[in-house]
Amino acid sequence: MSDTTALELWINRLLLRSALSEDEVESLRTLPFNIENYDANRDFVGLGEMTTHSCIVINGLAGRFDQTRDGTRAITAIHIPGDACDLHSLPVPLSANPLQALARTTIARVSHEALRDVAKQYPAIAQAFFRDCVVDAAILSKWALNAGRTEARQRLAHLFCELALRYALIGQNKCDFPLPITQAHLGDASGLTSIHVNRTIRALSDEGLMRVSQGRVVIEDWDRLVVYADFNPAYLHLADPKPPR
Amino acid sequence: MSDTTALELWINRLLLRSALSEDEVESLRTLPFNIENYDANRDFVGLGEMTTHSCIVINGLAGRFDQTRDGTRAITAIHIPGDACDLHSLPVPLSANPLQALARTTIARVSHEALRDVAKQYPAIAQAFFRDCVVDAAILSKWALNAGRTEARQRLAHLFCELALRYALIGQNKCDFPLPITQAHLGDASGLTSIHVNRTIRALSDEGLMRVSQGRVVIEDWDRLVVYADFNPAYLHLADPKPPR
DNA sequence: CGCCGTATTGAACAAATTCAAGATCTGTGG
DNA sequence: CCACAGATCTTGAATTTGTTCAATACGGCG
């Protein structure tokens, strides 16, 4: 993988929400990074770790985990290729949540030092980083709303709609995308038991809305699924007018 | 209320997590703002609004709302005096969630322009704003975990622990603080019905952990409540070493 | 081929919701 | 100061939803 392409997905996604000049984009392209591979269920950022780098998913799937002492586990974010998982560690380096590969995953580590340098040189980049973190928080906020719903079908449907759209942003078919994770992980992400995830996916499938098989999600009726999940993509802030630099 | 004191709580709270110089603090103190009062249940930032200001709670209590079409409502953040409710509107001005007064509430509105100016002049302030938003996201993340718990008692206990500590930061007694909101609002914030909130509060009270009465929370056994809620304040990032400026 | 993690299914159980009714509180006008 | 109206709080009982526990099937990989 050449130095100039690994970060391309991430840079393109930043450009969806932030206007950056040629120079600014070039400075992102030339950021130094290390490529690392992790098997499924391996932490790549530990709990309580004082981080010195931020991680960008190049391939695979990553999750942010949290758990209570009594065993309730939650995935509070799922990151697909092109996502920076912990850009927020730039202002808050002490990790409060572990980051884990949900499948075999390739990440690029970029040092905080390098990120700070480029943010210092180009304020628009600092703004873009800030914006990216705020949008991540908006996604989390929607997850919190979603978790409060009583109907498991709608919870999962909403999750699938969101992932579909986020995959679409990186050039995938939104109605047929990879999701190489276990039902237990889906449960952690939706606040359900793996058993109920299983039943719920079957129900969604029986209604002809979507299928999950072999680590892929196939959406069979996007329009109906959107209505069913009450999915409104505004929170992803994709169509917002670009704010002043 | 004099110009130099209304923002003091907020500035002090920023200083808990960010080291700022005298000049920097002074520039925050002299930010121009407008004071506004809202009755309970009044929106002060509307859904879909293109904001030009950020709001700081001076007095009272504010909530960020979200809801699904089928009627599930959620409060995704509760803001006490000293909190900036929507500093994140600086990089993402289009509001995806309304902000509402939960009780009679005084807010200070500060223009994005003024905030951007001061952030541009002092990069450490820009960093402090960024950090504040990231900590807000960390709180939200903990709410998402909390919502996934099966036991209502622990959910509410956790919420009360968090609010207690946040009130302590602004000089209130953490075991006796105001919470002038309805049980319906508490339900929206914890993913429960108001009826179940009522029963759950009674249960917590019966166990001698805490009481709620007349718009106040009185915690009777902090240590036991913390254990009960499995509350670990690390996510508030209060004891973190200060990162490089 | 056999193992182990994952998926699937069933039945009993626990938890929270819903619906309904009544009590209490709060603010307002007389 | 009291009476009233509306909101909030409280309580009960039936119902819905999801969980738990347990057992079995599947599927990839050594």
Structural class assignment of chain A: alpha+beta
Question: What shape does the CA trace of chain A take?
Answer: globular
Tell me which protein chains meet in the greatest interface and how many residues each side has: A-B, 55 and 55 residues
Oligomerization category of the chains in this entry: homodimer
Task: Summarize the biggest pleated sheet of chain A.
Answer: 4 strands, antiparallel
Major sheet strand order of chain A = 2-6-4-5
Write the H/E string of chain A, N to C: HHEEEEEEEHHHEHHEEH
Give the CA-CA distance, first to last residue of chain A.
33 Å
What is the β-strand count of chain A? 10
Which blocks of ≥5 consecutive residues of chain A have pLDDT under 50? Answer: none
Total helical elements of chain A: 8
Strand coverage percent of chain A: 15-25%
Helical percent range of chain A? 40-55%
Tell me the Rg of chain A in angstroms. 18 Å
**What is the overall pLDDT average of chain A?**
94
Could you name the key traits of this structure?
homodimer; 245 residues; alpha+beta; four-stranded antiparallel β-sheet; three-stranded antiparallel β-sheet; 8 helices; 41% helix; DNA-binding
Note down, in words, how this protein is organized:
2 copies of one chain form a homodimer. With 245 residues, the first copy, chain A, is α+β, with helices and mostly antiparallel strands. Chain A has 8 helices and 10 strands. The first copy, chain A, has helices at 8-17, 22-29, 112-121, 123-147, 152-169, 183-190, 194-206, 222-229, and strands at residues 34-38, 43-45, 53-59, 62-67, 73-79, 99-101, 105-111, 176-178, 210-213, 216-219. In chain A, the strands form 3 sheets. In chain A, strands 2-6-4-5 form a 4-stranded antiparallel β-sheet. Chain A starts with 7 loop residues before the first helix and ends in a 16-residue tail after the last helix. The interface between A and B is large, with 55 and 55 residues. Chain A binds a DNA duplex (30 and 30 nucleotides) through residues 150-152, 182-184, 192-196, 198-199, 202.
